[in-house]
Amino acid sequence: MSSILPKSDWSTLIPHAGAMCLLDEVVAWDEAAIHARARSHARDDNPLRSDGQLRALHLAEYGAQAMAIHGGLLARAQGAVAAPGYLVSLRDVELAVARIDDFGEALDVHAQRLLAGDGHWQYEFRIEHAGRVLARGRAAVIAGAAR
Q1: How many CA atoms lie less than 13 Å away from 123 in the CB half-sphere?
Q2: H or E element at residue 142
Q3: CB distance 92 to 116 below 8 Å
Q4: Could you tell me how far CA 139 lies from the centroid of its own chain?
Q5: What is the pTM of this model?
Q6: pLDDT digits over 65-91, tens only?
């Protein structure tokens, strides 16, 4: 289960669409973790931009989208469809930069599932650029109604 997957393979598994689907490809994934890449941080049409900038705080959304894709891929592997998840908390978030729109190369987005229960999950996320950690933290998600 760990070959590169283009956006066309998994984009229907998550509720994010159009420019709001921030990740571009899944590099690798397994039952516990996912590694994705994004180039949307450098695009002028990124919907999270304000005042011509994309702040590092938005890296939490990149991590959350990796978690959503991971959940969708896991459900699909079991012949099911993942219920939409709702981000309910962020903890221990560390940001190493103030903004990210001026980084030219792709961002590597990593998420590792720490806990999975009936309708709730906790993940640790880490976003890197050229091997440098830009952000890290933990996120908790609860499931909503199945779509």
Answers
A1: 33
A2: strand 132-143
A3: no
A4: 11
A5: 0.94
A6: 999 999 999 999 999 998 888 999 999
Interatomic CA distance for residues 38 and 21, integer angstroms: 10
78 near 71, Cβ under 8 Å?
A: no
The CA-CA-CA angle for residues 50, 46, 15, to 5°, reads 120
Supply φ then ψ for residue 143, to 5 degrees.
-85, 145
Q: What is the pLDDT of residues 33-77, one digit of tens each?
A: 999 999 999 999 999 999 999 999 999 999 999 999 999 999 999
Residue 74's CB: how many other CB atoms inside 10 A?
A: 21
Q: How far apart are the first and last CA of the chain?
A: 25
Strand order in the sheet with 5-6: 5-6, 25-29, 33-38, 107-117, 120-129, 132-143, 85-95
Q: Where are the domains of the chain?
A: 5-143
Helix (H, G, I), strand (E, B) or coil at 12: helix
* Domain 5-143, CATH: 3.10.129.10
Nearest partner of 83 among 147, 27, 130, 128, judged by Cα = 147
